[in-house]
Amino acid sequence: MAQQHVQGNVVILPQTAAQDFLLFCKRNPKPCPVLAVGKPGAWGLPELGFEIDMRRDLPRYRVWHNGVMVADPTDITDLWRSDFVSFVLGCSFSFEQALMDEGIRLRHVDQGRNVAMYRTNRATVPAGPFQGPMVVSMRPMSAADAQRAVQITARYPAVHGAPVHLGDPAALGIHDLARPEYGDAVEVLPGEVPVFWACGVTPQAALLQAALPLAITHAPGAMLVTDLLNHQLQTLQE
Predict the structure, then answer these.
(1) DSSP string spanning 148-176?
(2) CA distance 162 to 165
(3) Phi–psi pair at 205, nearest 5 degrees
(4) At what angle do helices 143-153 and 92-101 cross, to 10 degrees?
C-alpha cells in the first residue's frame, strides 16, 4: 500500500519515559532511526504530513501494560492523554520500494505477505529502562542482488540503511528461518542468501524489557503512512 510514500514505525509513550526512549533511539540508530517526535499531547506531526492524526491513522495499534500486550485496536482516541509523546521511526518498507525500482524482486511482496522478522542475539545499547535484542527483517536474494541491495539501501540511513548481516542466520542467534517472531515466513531457495536489516520492531522488544505501565505501538506491518515520498529521504541524506 502507498509504496512511494515514507512509512513509519510508531511508539507512543508518556512524557516521563520519552527522554530515555529518545536517547535509546540515538544510541541505536540502525534499528531506531527517528523521523519525527511529537510534542506532549499533540497527535499531529506536520513535518510528516497534512492532518496526520496519531490516534487513528494507523491500521492497527498494540497497547502494552507492564510489558504485556492487552489490546490491538484500530483507534486509540479514547486512550489518548495530554502527556503522550509520539515517535515515528524509519521503516524498511521505504527502502523496499527503492530495491524494487532497481529490479530486485522481494519474495514476501510477490506472495502478499508481511516481511519475516526475528529477534537476534545482538543487544541494543541501553538507555534508562530501555534495552533488549535487536530485531531484524530478512529478505532472501541471489548473491548478485544481495550485493546490489547493500549499495542501494546504504543510501537510505533514515530507514535502516545497509544490512547488518548477510548469510548464516546462526551468527545472529536465529536457528529456524521458518519460525519468525514477527511477520510471515518466506522460503529461502537453494543458491539464495538471507539478507538481514535492522528492524523498527526492535523498540517493541525494548518495551517488553522496560515493562512500562503504559505504552502504545504499531502492530507489525501496520505502519503510519506519511505525505513524504521515499526518494526525499535519499535526497535529504546526500
Answers:
(1) HHHHHHTT-GGGT-S-SEES-GGGGT---
(2) 9
(3) -65, -40
(4) 120
Tell me the CATH number at 105: 3.30.2040.10
Question: b/e string for 82-92 if b means 16 or more Cβ within 10 A?
Answer: eebbbbbbbbb
| Count of structural domains within the chain | 1
Compute the distance between CA of residue 141 and CA of residue 36 in angstroms, rounded to an integer: 32
HSE on the CB side for 194, CA within 13 Å?
23
Q: Which three cell numbers stand for residue 93?
A: 518498507
Domain that holds residue 45: 5-237
- Do 84 and 129 meet the contact criterion of CB atoms below 8 Å apart? no
Quote the pTM value. Answer: 0.88
Task: Report whether 52 contacts 9 (CB < 8 A).
Answer: no
Instruction: In whole angstroms, give the CA distance from residue 118 to residue 48.
Output: 28
Tell me the CA end-to-end span of the chain in Å, nearest whole number. Answer: 27
Q: What pLDDT digit, counting tens, does each position of 161-196 carry?
A: 899 999 999 999 999 999 999 889 999 999 999 999
Amino acid identity of residue 53, one-letter, is D
